[in-house]
Structure formats: C-alpha cells, structure tokens
Amino acid sequence: MTDPVVRPATRADVPALLDLIRGLAEYERLSHLVEATEASLADALFGAGAHVEALLAEHGGEPVGFALYFHNFSTFLGRRGLYLEDLFVRPAHRRRGIGRALLLAVARIAHARNCGRFEWMALDWNTPAIEFYKSLGAVEHPEWRLLRVAGDALARLGTRDGQPADALPPRDWA
After folding, report:
1. Could you say which of 71, 79, 114, 118 has the lowest number of CB atoms within 10 Å?
2. How far apart are CA 20 and CA 64, in angstroms?
3. Low-confidence residues of the chain: pLDDT under 70
C-alpha cells in the first residue's frame, strides 16, 4: 500500500471536500443538517477574511479524507489554539493510516504556530474514534459540556434586547 498524500486543500478541491463533508454527515447520521454548498464552503475557506483551513488526504489520487480546522483562543493560556472541527476518512479507506496522517498533520501545524493546545470533540457513541484519539495521547474531558445556540434560537437570542443585528460595528477580520 502506498502512503496517503496529505496536503492543504485548494479552491479546486471544494467539490471533493463537500462530498467528504456529506460522507461525514451520513456516517454521523446528521445528513439532514448539511446546509453547506460549494459556494459557501469556497467562501469560508478561500474568501476575503477566511479563517478556516482544510487538509485533503488522497490515496491513489482519490480524495479519501479531510481535516477542517481553525484557530481559537485560550484566555487562561493567553495564546491561540487550534480547533479541529472535523476529521473524516471514507469507511472503505479506514485502518490504512489516513486518519492518523491527517491528525498528525494538524498537530504539526498547531505546534509550528506555537498554539497552546489542539482540541476537538467526538460524538459519545463513536467509540472507535475516541479510542483512536486516546491512543495518540488525547485526553477526554467529560466535565465539559458543549452548549449551542443555532438557527431560529440564535436569531431570537441575537435580537432579544430589541437591538438590531447591526447595532454593533462589524469586526474587521482582515
């Protein structure tokens, strides 16, 4: 078996990335939540002020996995970190070192950028992924709970005090 090739995603990879995202959603039984389009994904990764990055894994020239990540910040450390939003390898290509290669590539990026930490989440039922991450030294933090506000609830919360959404000046991300 040849080693997988892991490389930064390019704008030309957007269709393959979206296909892999849909594969991840199917695996996680969350296909009904996918709203991303090629246009929205291209803008998030390569548009003005983009703060999201992706790696693509190829095996035999075929896109078989990806990692999508971005910087966060730790107030306690006073340094930025790297957050892995998603890592996915097509089921037919698992157990070939592709997931490990993707995770190690993102870890190298975090280390090279002097990040204070590298973190991500896994669904509680995804035991194979959790065990894989632990085998590489990841530590589970069960005392932390993910909280989320999205969709209509976010719209209600964002306008709760009667202020219009544009009441605050936009952040200049450039």
Report:
1. 114
2. 8
3. 1, 164-174
Can you name the residues that pair with 114 across neighbouring β-strands?
Answer: none
pLDDT in tens, 18-30: 999 999 999 999 9
Helix (H) or strand (E) holding 47: none
Helix %, strand %, coil % of the chain (to 5): 35, 20, 40
Q: What is the pLDDT of residue 57?
A: 98
CATH class assigned to 5-158:
alpha beta
Strand partners, 16: none
**Structure tokens of 79?**
């340094």
Write phi, then psi, for 111 (nearest 5 degrees): -65, -45
Catalytically active residues are: 133
pLDDT at 167: 64
